[in-house]
Design brief:
alpha/beta; Rossmann fold; seven-stranded mixed beta sheet; globular; binds S-adenosyl-L-homocysteine
Length: about 210
Amino acid sequence: MQDSFKHKGLRNKLVLDLKTKGIKDDSVLEAVKSVPRHLFMDSGFLDHAYQDKAFPIASGQTISQPFTVAFQTELLNVKKDHKILEIGTGSGYQAAILCHMGAKVYTIERIKELFRKTSVFLPSINYRPKKMIYGDGYLGYSEEAPYDSIIVTAGASEIPEKLINQLKIGGRMVIPVGEEVQKMKLVIKISESDFETKIFGDFQFVPMLKNIK
Ligand code: SAH
């Protein structure tokens, strides 16, 4: 599967769509314009790759809607060389966007099949997270903490304390919180004990899994 002019054209359209929907950060829009989302999807959905919709990937999971990816990424305020922890590797699309923006990406996936597939796939198309981890995102990845930012790409029932502890002072965590529908929350760590939380609109994610082997 190649990246063709047709695909590039469709991405340009998608970027215009995201701008109309309120995404302003040029570095985010540039990343969406560059990363070939169609390569992250199962063949049955290729025609839909550049619609602003979520689609199924393996193991009953989804590749997030482009608007959601762009919205979360914008809130992270990514700078080159930022150390970023992602919870929920899934297809690897969000991780590729962050790699494209020059971040040092650590990403955790709880489902072994997806972890295996994406760990092979991402480097094969030249996106290289610093580390892809098979594990439980609720625990974070303390070996590399603290992080400039943490992005959670599955719906959490609450803000996991272990993750907050792995943020730098001044660091940002973007996390959808709720059961059926989630509110997007941005948590900024002001000091070891002080946080500023901003709440944005409703989103729908697959749930963050607990206690699976
Ligand atoms: N960022 C992904 C979105 C995938 S959907 C992408 O761009 O495609 C959410 C992902 O979170 C799924 O792959 C799911 O298996 C994973 N997940 C769910 N609970 C998790 C947990 N506790 N720890 C790590 N990953 C988890």
